[in-house]
Structure formats: structure tokens, C-alpha cells
Amino acid sequence: MRGPTDDGSRPLEAAEGTAPVSVAQAPGVAGPAAPVGVSTPSEVGATAAACASKSKRARRGKKRTNEKNHEERPTQTKPVKRDRPDDSFTPQGNGKRRKPTNTTGPIKYADALKMKEYCVAIMMEPYHDLTKEQAEAIEKQLQRVMDEEIFSPSTSATPVVAPSFRGKAFHSEGTLKMWCEDDFALQWLQRNVVKVTSPRAGTRLVVRKQSEIPKRVKAGLLIPQVEPEDDLDRIRLRITCQNPKYRVSNWALYSAVPMENKTAIYLILGIPEDDAQKLKASERRIHYKFGNIYARFQEDRITALPNLDATEEVPTDSGNAVTKMEESQPGPSKEPVVDIGSSEVGPQSDLGDLSESELVDIDESGLSSDDGAANSS
């Protein structure tokens, strides 16, 4: 048994009692025989080369498999839309429809402004609403004037030139609206409208731009203290005389609704903008009998009508208390009869032309004369 080497390791020795294994050399093999379990350097190199070659073939085969799978993988496409009977196909070639060209070209600002001037309206001056029947009567009178010029015998060799209009004349905003073709038609209309009699005494018919039509603001007005003899004409005249700073004759009445308690009437009015500004400046106050009533404009977003039974005292500069109608809270027992914001506007009628036959007859509605209004103390 040998001792340890210089580096401290000990050589591997055969176990005691065992003899070394010897392998007989095969016939025809040159060179010394190697012990069992020990590979020669040539065998190790051959084994490593075989493993490397096998690994390369495996990688090459995997790459080819991936490429083949990628080629064989079907491409995903969107589902094909089924044909419908109304589907059309754009023709190709000579049969293809051509895009229409704009023959008029761009419209200049001056031309657009002139076209706007040709949109006119026939109205009464001072302004009052024209009814549909009155507008149709005015159109018929103008047509008779035009026919007289066309069909009247003439000794001149020059043919008669009649005015031209676009579209159709129609009644809107209390006026008769038209669209003149050119300056000649506009001048003809201005020259001949004076020949037509105005349907209202003290007024005359004029031609104005449609942009000059007076605008109205929708408002609600509760009229308290309705007596059996009070009709809409009496109510209008009372408001007109007690409020001279407002042009009540130009107010339009859309609807008149008696209240559920039969002691008041609620009016939906169209008030001109100038009068609406005056009303807002005076806290929407309108003098009526021996107290005040208040206009309710659409932008106030009123959800309920004023309660006649509930009043509050508002102090004034003079120290006197003025009662003011309060709004009733919405509830199951106090539903608003008319909602200003959502009520439908019917045909406009001038408050100055109201009569018992045209609108609600308060006398026939059975309104009592109970005093539930707020009066000034």
C-alpha cells in the first residue's frame, strides 16, 4: 500500500482479495486491449461527434417542422357577408356612373346675403298677428293683382313680365312668408301690397325681412278674481288700461284654461321681447284690479301653478306690505293644470281680437266669484 501523494490524494487501489480483470483480445484486432469500462480517446471523440451531429439534425428537423406548420396553417379571414336583395354593385368601366358636378359653384357671401333679403314676410304695421284665413285672403288679393297685369289687354308689343317666386307662400309667426326670385319680384311685391286692404282697422300691410319679425317670449299669467260677467275681452281691456307701458294689444294668446277651483283662469301668452324685458325689470309685475299679478316665463322652470289660498307679505320701501301669490308645492292634490315649459302651442290668436265665440267662454264655465286673489293692503 502506497502512501499519499504530494497533493494529499491517494491512488485508487484494487480491493483486497480481488484479482485484476483482464480482457482477451479479439482476433483480428491490433493493438493492446483496453480494460473493461475505460474508453479510449478515439472512442470519446467519435461519441461526441455523433451526439453533436444528432443534436444538429434534431434542431434542423424541428425548424423544418415549424416552417411546414406555419405554411400549412390557414389564414384567418372575416366571415363572408351574405348577399342581400338590395345590395348593389358599382359598375366598372364605361357603365360606371359619373359623379355629378356642381354647376353653380361656390356661393359668395354677397349672393347669400342677397338671397336672405329675398325671404320676406307680409305683416301688419303696427304689428299684429295674421290668422291663417287672413293670410290666405291676402295671397288671393295679390294673385288677382298679378292676373290683372297678365291678362289685361295691352297695345304694346312688349310682352308682360310677371314676377317670379320660389317655393310656396305660407302662414307662419303671424305673417305671410314668401321667397322672391330677384329684385324685380321684391319691388313688385312692395309696390302692390299697398293695394291690399289690411284685415285690421288702423293698420297697413308692409313687406319686411323675415328676420325683422318681432319675436315673442312664452309666458303664463294667472288671472284671479274672475267674476261671472268677466270674459276675455273684459280681462284684456282691464290689463290694457291699468298697464299703459305695455303694448297688450300685441300680446298673443295661445290658450286659456279655467282653474280647477273655478275662481281663476290661466293664460298662456306670447309677449314681445321688449315688453318681456320691461316685465322682468319690474319683477314680472302686472297691475290688475287693486293688486298685482305676476307673469311666469318659460325660463323660470315653474313646476306648479301659484296657490291662491297661500299668500306672503313682501315689505316695500314705503313700509307697507304687499301680498304676493306663492307657488303651490307639487303634490297629488295640487297638480299643475298647465305646464308652461311643456304645453303645446296652438294657433296664435291676437289678444286684441278675442271674442266669446273664438276662445273659452268664462261665463259658461261656471266660474264662481269667490275672492281668492291677493290684493294690496
Describe the protein in words:
It is built from six helices and twelve strands. The strands form three sheets. It has a six-stranded antiparallel beta sheet. The radius of gyration is 51 Å and the shape is elongated. A hairpin with a 6-residue loop joins β6 and β7. The protein has 377 residues and is an alpha+beta fold. Among the domains are: 92 residues, Alpha-Beta Plaits, CATH 3.30.70; 138 residues, no CATH class.
How would you summarize the topology of this molecule?
Layout lengths: L40 H32 L36 H10 E7 L6 H20 L13 E8 L2 E6 L2 H10 L11 E6 L6 E8 L8 H11 L9 E7 L6 E8 H9 L3 E4 L2 E7 L8 E10 L5 E7 L21 E2 L27
Antiparallel strand pairs: 1-3, 1-4, 2-3, 5-7, 5-9, 6-7, 6-12, 8-9, 10-11
Q: What features would you highlight for this structure?
A:
377 residues; 6 helices; DUF4780; 6-stranded antiparallel beta sheet; DUF4780 domain-containing protein; 12 strands; alpha+beta; 4-stranded antiparallel beta sheet; Alpha-Beta Plaits
